[in-house]
Design a protein that fits this description.
By secondary structure, this protein is of the alpha+beta class. The protein contains 31 helices and 11 strands.
Length: about 900
């Protein structure tokens, strides 16, 4: 088959070049015009995930929780005429930007006043006269700070910190080009630093846009750096600019295709898909090195360029395809998760890895066919003392010191295993930023002065409209907010209760002592005021009632911010908060549940107790039974004693359960902090699962290839050890397990298996050539495939290592750990795998392994290579020798 493929490639060089050029232009155009950035957090979760469903429900009721950009200043002289006017000027100017929906600061607030004669509230702007004729700056300050609501929301009086909150349209934030409005606002705000000192930035729009832009920027930066460093190394190995150019053509086209395919499939650049373009270099360079090394070996052996090109395609075409296919298969396992983002990553990565193989097998032979035969100096790398000496040392160790190899390996594995036990999983929104980074400093500044920076939301379903303004309901919500106040991980919370307090305070002439929930007596007096007052736009849009109350779904919102802590710490906090809030809102729940369990267990006396103690349950059950069992309904309506005859019926139990649930306040904890936390945990679990699936799938493929399960098990050992060593390093050095570092294992395993396939494929071929001289087969396999493995590993080590210069800790760890893993994988595949083959000998090298379904390295056919050459396509006149056609 591969001889046929070689003939097709060499006969149709110009046609293939034309097709590849057109496809590259197509992919490039889509990459340039259709590639978009996905800068949202927490959307790794599958659609049916309860956390994601809750978050989507929250957004449908209250809108985005992360649409506020925050500017913070720290000054003790804001309340001077000039500076307060500048603060207003900044806000008014920002409000004119496209995509800005509202700007709230101390300079934009409104006061609510009681017009006793009209029995209605009037709203007035606190600061409107820029000449300070109506009010002095001190009067303005006093009027703003007499409302307790604003303290620790818009300003921290004790720290002299003031905030400006800027609401940005989500359609602008999610659009790569329009999102630049955030950067434009921040650039404009910096022009006011001469007036206020350093301006700090916070809020999810800032994190999403700035980090997203830097992720995109670094993706291109490290693609370029990887190509540069690999080019230098390839030149060092091959001593040929031509080889460097050929390899670069392959990987550059692969990168263009990868970005174009992401756009064509309708996917966006995310934290996962941003890894795909650099991965194309990772996969493409090994292909090129193996192909070029084999080409040079063939040229050195017989000097016939045509024969060398054809042999390269024929002899390692299957092996190269299988190495790419196994890597692709590893990424394809992400498709079996329920996460859209993981599926997009898996589909795009696996598809592009296969495309890299075709680019390598097409472009490299075609360009070489147009080039001159390599000169002697270009082939010297095959005998370079460093590489040859390295391989000779490997051969000496594996053939003479296998016992020492096993002892050292066991010690390393045990030591790494201890480190594995120390490894911890985590993940937070700013966890990849290094200490001292401006974004991280600003987040910490907000947390220190206002308690939190990442949205944390509570939705309370009060079930019945009449419950909302009950004093008992409002007091329970107030008590929930008190839980926030006691917890240093949270900022001050905002809810309907705060609006009620502001209204009650306004009713009493803005007396601070009346910043309380209104009494039942005042509730009747306030009814007319409230009926005539538009609470949906209190303070002229500063804080909108509709963002805190969804009357259509009888749900209210408690809004807050929390510290940017690890995902597992967030999960623990969510669990503890649920228990505390449930105890406040549903204090009778434990007793109700106990009654219910006794009822369905058949203890009839509890039926009397549950209905006598909780009349609402009795009423709720009877109403729910309206469309149920007629006899049961009749029993409720006429004779309560008869109900005991029905306690065991499923319909009764079902309706009793519904009535009890309807008596509870529904509680849902959500927000970006919760969704991002769950997304990180989901990703960690699924990456582990996908790694296991990849191992199983690749093992099955290798079993089909080599027809020996024993050989597969032995071959997996040198590929597991690097993963264990890497995990041990992470544990010993305190590198946490998170999405960015967990990807190391999938990437490294897929690549290290490539070395195993190349080595075993060559080893099996040598079994035939060396007539089962196992020691000689091992030695020859090391010499033939070891050089390519050595070159590849060094190039990949340096290519990934450039990531340590990233601004993001996750990218730094990814580069360092992948480099380490691949280096260890090279050593284990060149030392441990040959040692195992020699030690176990014929116990694993079975006849099935010797006679596979198909060869990874094809054997020679009866072709007279000495009389073959490529036809000159510009001249149809045959040459003195017959062409390959």
């Amino acid at each position: 088959m591969w001889q046929f493929i070689a003939n097709v490639i060499l006969r149709n060089r110009f046609l293939i070049i034309g097709i590849l050029t057109l496809l590259t232009v197509l992919f490039g155009y889509n990459a340039a015009t259709g590639l978009k950035l996905d800068n949202k957090y927490g959307f790794i979760l599958p659609k049916e995930s309860p956390e994601k469903m809750n978050y989507e429900k929250f957004k449908s009721m209250f809108g985005e929780d992360g649409g506020t950009l925050v500017l913070a200043i720290q000054t003790d002289s804001l309340y001077t005429e000039d500076r307060f006017l500048k603060w207003k000027e900044l806000g008014d100017s920002i409000l004119k930007y496209d995509g800005v929906e509202a700007v709230v600061s101390e300079a934009t607030l409104f006061s609510v006043e009681n017009n006793i004669e009209k029995e209605e509230f009037e709203v007035h702007k606190i600061f409107s006269d820029i000449q300070y004729g109506e009010k002095s700056i001190k009067e303005i300050e006093r009027e703003i700070k007499q409302v307790p609501f604003y303290n620790n929301i818009l300003y921290n009086d004790s720290a002299n910190v003031s905030l400006m909150m800027i609401s940005v349209d989500e359609s602008f934030l999610s659009d790569q080009k329009k999102a630049n409005v955030v950067l434009d606002i921040e650039a404009y705000a910096e022009t006011f630093e001469k007036d206020f000192g350093r301006i700090r930035y916070a809020g999810l729009p800032h994190l999403r846009v700035v980090i997203g832009k830097r992720v995109m920027k670094e993706m291109f930066l490290f693609v370029g750096l990887s190509i540069l460093i690999t080019s230098i190394l390839i030149f060092t190995f091959f001593r040929s600019f031509k080889v460097v150019a050929i390899c670069n053509v392959v990987v550059v086209i692969a990168v263009i295709w990868s970005m174009g395919s992401i756009a064509m499939l309708g996917f966006h650049i995310s934290i996962l898909t941003a890894l795909i373009p650099p991965l194309m270099i990772v996969i493409g360079i090994p292909n090129c090195i193996f192909l070029m090394t084999k080409y040079h070996q063939e040229v050195k052996e017989h000097g016939n360029k045509v024969k060398a090109i054809s042999r390269v395609i024929r002899k390692i075409g299957t092996a190269t395809f299988l190495t790419n296919f196994t890597t692709s298969l590893g990424f394809l396992t992400f498709v079996f998760t329920n996460s859209d983002k993981l599926m997009e990553f898996g589909i795009t990565a696996s598809m592009n890895i296969i495309m890299v193989f075709f680019l390598s097998i097409l472009i490299l032979p075609i360009i070489v066919s147009f080039s001159k035969t390599p000169k002697t100096r270009h082939l010297k790398h095959l005998e370079r003392k460093l590489a040859v000496g390295f391989l000779n040392k490997i051969i000496f160790i594996t053939t003479n010191h296998r016992k020492a190899i096993y002892i050292v390996t066991i010690c390393i594995v045990v030591f790494s295993g201890i480190g594995l036990a120390k490894m911890k999983a985590t993940g937070n929104l700013t966890g990849d930023l290094p200490e001292g980074h401006q974004i991280l400093e600003d987040v910490h500044f907000m947390q220190d002065n206002f308690g939190g920076s990442i949205p944390f939301e509570i939705m309370v379903d009060y079930k019945e409209p009449g419950r909302l303004f009950k004093k008992s309901t409002l007091e329970k919500i107030e008590e929930v907010q008190a839980v926030y106040m006691k917890d240093t991980l949270f900022s001050k919370s905002v809810s309907l209760v705060d609006f009620i307090k502001v209204i009650n305070m306004a009713y009493y002439g803005n007396n601070q002592e009346k910043y309380t929930i209104f009494s039942n007596r005042d509730k009747a007096r306030l009814k007319k005021y409230i009926d005539n007052f538009d609470m949906t736009n209190l303070n002229g849009g500063a804080f909108k009632m509709k963002e805190l109350l969804d009357t259509a779904n009888t749900t209210l919102r408690i809004r807050s911010q929390m510290h940017d802590i690890g995902s597992y710490e967030v999960a623990d906090k969510v669990d503890s908060m649920k228990l505390q809030i449930d105890a406040i809102l549903n204090p009778d729940k434990p007793e109700l549940e106990r009654y219910y369990k006794q009822v369905i267990a058949g203890k009839k006396e509890y039926i009397d107790s549950i209905f006598q103690s909780f009349p609402a349950i009795y009423n709720g059950t009877t109403s729910l039974l309206a469309n149920g069992d007629a006899d049961l309904q009749y029993a409720f309506d006429t004779d309560f004693e008869k109900i005991k005859e029905y306690y065991g019926k499923p319909e009764f139990n079902k309706n009793l359960r519904s009535a009890i649930d309807n008596d509870y306040f529904g509680i849902v904890l959500t927000g970006t902090s919760v969704v991002a936390s769950e997304g990180t945990q989901y990703l960690v679990i699924n990456l582990f699962t996908s790694l296991i699936f990849a191992i199983i799938a690749i093992s099955i493929l290798m079993a089909i290839l080599f027809r020996s399960w024993r050989m597969v098990l032995v071959s997996l050992i040198p590929n597991f050890i690097p993963l264990i060593v890497t995990g041990g390093v992470m544990g010993w050095f305190g590198i946490p397990l998170k999405p960015s570092t967990l990807l190391v294992f999938s990437i490294a395993f897929g690549i290290s298996v490539d070395d195993t396939i190349h080595y075993l494929a060559k080893y099996r071929q040598e079994l035939k050539n060396q007539e089962w001289d196992l020691k000689q087969c091992v030695v020859m396999a090391i010499r033939e495939s070891g050089l390519g493995m050595f070159y590849t590993s060094i190039v990949l080590f340096c290519g990934f290592f450039v990531f340590v210069f990233s601004q993001f800790g996750g990218t730094q760890a990814l580069g360092m750990l992948v480099s380490l893993t691949l280096l260890v994988a090279m050593l284990t595949n060149l030392i441990i795998l040959p040692s195992l083959l020699l030690t176990l000998e014929r116990n694993i090298t079975t006849k099935a392994f010797r006679e596979p379904f198909f060869d990874a390295y094809d054997e020679e056919s009866d072709i007279d290579w000495e009389n073959l050459e490529i036809e000159d396509e510009e001249d149809d006149t045959p040459t003195s020798k017959p062409s390959i056609e």
